[in-house]
Every structure is written in structure tokens, then in C-alpha cells.
Design goal:
It is a single chain. The chain is mostly helical. The chain has one domain: Four Helix Bundle (Hemerythrin (Met), subunit A). The protein is 60% helix and 5% strand. The protein contains six helices and two strands; from the N terminus they run H-H-H-H-E-E-H-H. A two-stranded antiparallel sheet has the order 1-2. Helix 1 packs antiparallel against helix 4 and helix 3 runs parallel beside helix 4. The radius of gyration is 17 Å and the shape is globular. The two termini are 21 Å apart. The mean pLDDT is 96.
Length: 169
């Protein structure tokens, strides 16, 4: 039997990362068709104190690699946040997809009892069970940033809808 934490994480994040990739492609096409400087979309924000689109994609990708790695009991890779173009963001998403796809379902066996330690050795250290980490921290964070990518683009006139957000399932 496949671990419920695998089922609730890996396939869901793969679906949403692929959908985010497709939405970014539509945004790039939109910028080209409307003669909009791509950086106008890449640096767009919903509000001045929020991160721009580029950072939202980076954080969503970071959460996807962190969630899958921690639940599988693997080291979380460190990737520089140096993306500045749509092509860079597509490469980042592809790297995140490849990382997540590298895990086998059996690596998540018994992950329900695994302890996840966030910010170890700091005053903000938190210890969570794997299920609490996934369901109450990891996935909500991941979805927040994926949704914000969609919202920034929709707010800026990219013609996308709920089907684009959801992707193939």
C-alpha cells in the first residue's frame, strides 16, 4: 500500500507545478502578443509589500522540493534563487519536477511517524509530525504561492481560468 503522505503530496505537487508551468507559458505568450516587456509581469506584485511573481515561483518550487525531500527522509537540496526570466522559471520548475519524480512511493513508507524539524538550531525551531507538517504547513504554503502566481498573472490581464490553475488531474 502506498503511503497516504506520498499520495497527498507528490502527485498533487506534480499536478500543480505542471499547471504553474503552463500558466507561465501563457503569460510569456501574452507578453509577446501584447508587446509587454516580460519583466513587467515577472516583477508584478498584488500589493507593494508582497513578493513579485519571480519570487512566488521560486518559493513554490522550494516548498515542493522541501516537502517531498523531508517526507522521504532525504536531504533537501539547496538551489540558488537566481531566476530572472520566463525561461529561467521554466527551468526551475523542470528541476523541481525532476526532483520530486525521483522519489519512489516506498521512500514515504512509515513517514507518518517521522519528525520534521523546521529551522533546526534556531530560536524559531519547530518540531512537527510528518502529517502535521504536510497538511498544516507544507501544502498550505505551497498552494499559497502557486495561487499567488495565478492571481498576479490574472490581475495583469493574462487570460487564464480555473482549468489553467488546476491543470490535468
Amino acid at each position: 500500500m502506498t503511503s497516504p503522505l506520498y499520495t497527498a503530496s507528490v502527485p498533487v505537487m506534480l499536478q500543480m507545478l505542471r499547471a504553474m508551468s503552463d500558466v507561465l507559458k501563457k503569460a510569456e505568450d501574452h507578453a509577446t502578443q501584447k508587446n509587454i516587456e516580460p519583466n513587467a509581469l515577472l516583477q508584478a506584485r498584488l500589493f507593494p509589500d508582497m513578493f513579485p511573481l519571480v519570487r512566488q515561483v521560486q518559493i513554490a518550487s522550494d516548498f515542493s522540493k522541501g516537502i517531498s525531500s523531508r517526507l522521504a527522509g532525504a536531504e533537501v537540496p539547496s538551489w540558488p534563487d537566481s531566476e530572472v526570466s520566463f525561461a529561467d522559471l521554466q527551468a526551475l520548475i523542470a528541476k523541481a519536477l525532476a526532483h520530486i519524480e525521483s522519489f519512489k512511493p516506498e521512500q514515504f513508507d512509515s513517514s507518518e511517524t517521522r519528525e520534521i524539524v523546521l529551522r533546526p538550531g534556531t530560536p524559531k525551531e519547530r518540531k512537527l509530525t510528518a502529517s502535521t507538517y504536510l497538511l498544516h504547513y507544507g501544502l498550505p504554503q505551497f498552494f499559497f504561492h502557486v495561487t499567488t502566481v495565478y492571481d498576479i498573472l490574472r490581475h495583469n490581464g493574462v487570460e487564464i481560468g480555473k482549468r489553467d490553475y488546476m491543470g490535468a488531474y
